[in-house]
Amino acid sequence: MKIGELAKKTDCSVQTIRYYEKEQLLCTTQRSDGNFRLYDEAAVEQLLFIKHCRNLDLSLSEIRQLLTLKRSPGAQCDQVNRMMDTHIQQVETRIQELVQLREHLKSLRRSCSSERTIEQCGILQTLTTNQHQKR
Amino acid sequence: MKIGELAKKTDCSVQTIRYYEKEQLLCTTQRSDGNFRLYDEAAVEQLLFIKHCRNLDLSLSEIRQLLTLKRSPGAQCDQVNRMMDTHIQQVETRIQELVQLREHLKSLRRSCSSERTIEQCGILQTLTTNQHQKR
DNA sequence: CTTGACTCTATAGTAACTATAGAGTTTAAA
DNA sequence: TTTAAACTCTATAGTTACTATAGAGTCAAG
C-alpha cells in the first residue's frame, strides 16, 4: 500500500509518517517504480504501536528504545519496566506542579472582580508588586 | 545599568532579555556609546512582571496583551479577568488529562513484572495489540 | 598594551510535528 | 489521447520559549 492508505488505516497524517521515517521509527523497505513508498501490514502494526506509545506521552526517543528492545525478544524486560516507572514519576510530578499552579491562579483570580479599571485590577497589582513565591 | 546587571537583578539570562526585546516584551530605550543596551529601574520592574507571568505559565503573547492593557489604566479590567479564567480552565483540563494518563500508565505497568523476557513483557504486549482507547 | 570580562549581531538547535512550494506520478474521465 | 484531479516526492520553514554557539567589538584593570 502507498503512504496515503497507511495514513488512513492508522489515522496518522502523511507528513507524520514521513517524519517518523526520518526519525528512524519506521523504515520504508520498498519503493514503487515512480519512487512512491510502499508498506505492508507489518508497517501498519508498527505505526499503531508508535501511536499507542504517543498516546502515553512517551517521547520519540523512548519509543525508539522500545522498538529496539522488541527486536531482542529473549532479553530481560526490566528496562521497559524502568522506563515506565520513570515516566509515571514524571507525570506525577507534572500533575503536582499543575495543581499548585492552579491554586495560585485561582487565588490570584479572587483578588479581582468585574467592574474594575485596569488601575484597580487586583491581578495586575499582584503581578506588578514583588512576589516571593517559588514554583 | 547594562544588560548583565539587569540579568543578575532579575535572575534572568542575558540571552532571554535580548529575546524578550526581539519579541517586543521589553524595549531598550537607550544605548551607550559602544552600542551597549542601557536599562533603568522601570526595566527591572517590567522584567519582573514578565517573570511573574511566566511563573504562571502565561504565554509571551498573553503577557504582551497584559502589558498593553497596563498602558491604559482607565480601561475596564474584564479582559484580564477573562484571560485568567481561560488560563485556569486550560490548566484544569491538562490536569485531568494527566490524571487519566497516569492511571493508564499505572495499569499498564501492573501488567508486567520483573524477571520476564521482552517476549513475555506485559507492557509491550499491550502496546502491540490493538487498543481502543481515547485520550 | 594586553588580558579578561563583558557586550554586540546573527545563526542554529531543541520536540514533534504542521504547512508550504515546486516538481513528478498515477488514475479516471472526456 | 489528452487532460485534469488526486496523489506522491523532496526540501524547507514555521511553531514555542528559550539556549548555545561563532566571530566580532568594547571597556576596565594591571
TrEMBL record, chains A, B:
Q: What residue stretches are annotated with the HTH merR-type domain?
A: 1-69
Flavoprotein recorded as keyword: no
The UniProt entry, under InterPro entries, shows: CadR-PbrR (IPR011791), DNA-bd_dom_put_sf (IPR009061), MerR-type_HTH_dom (IPR000551), MerR_fam (IPR047057), Tscrpt_reg_MerR_DNA-bd (IPR015358)
What is the top-level taxon of the source organism?
Bacteria
SUPFAM superfamilies associated with the record: Putative DNA-binding domain
Which Gene3D superfamilies does its entry note? Answer: 1.10.1660.10
- Which key words tag this protein in UniProt? DNA-binding, Transcription, Transcription regulation
Q: Which PROSITE patterns match?
A: HTH_MERR_1, HTH_MERR_2
Pfam families in the record: MerR (PF00376), MerR-DNA-bind (PF09278)
Record's protein name: Cd(II)/Pb(II)-responsive transcriptional regulator
- Report the source organism: Shewanella inventionis
